[in-house]
Amino acid sequence: EDRVEQSPQTLRIQEGVSISLNCSYTVSNFRALQWYRRDPGKGPELLFLLYSVGDEKQEERLRATLLKKGSSLHFEAPKPEDSATYLCAVETQCPQAPADCTQTLKLGL
Asked: pTM of the prediction?
C-alpha cells in the first residue's frame, strides 16, 4: 500500500535556530515529490518539485533534498514569517499508462 508520512506533525520555530521537516514515503512507481506551504485562509503554494534521488533545491532560507525513501525540508535560520503549514506530497504514475489509469497525489499529513 502506498504511504506518505510527515514528521514532526507540529514544530515550533525559534528565530535563527535551524530546523528540518521530514517526509517519508513507500510508493510504487514514484514520479515526484512536492513540498507545499499553506498560509491560513489560503490555498497551498508549491515550493519545490523533486524528481530524482539526490535532487536538492534551495530558495532563500529553505532547502529541500530528495532521498531514496524520503525528503527533508530544511529551514536555515528561520524567521517569524516562515510560520505556516508545510505539506509534502508524492506523485505516482502508472507503470504501463493504461487508458483507465490516472496519476495520483498522496499527501503526508
From this structure: 0.84
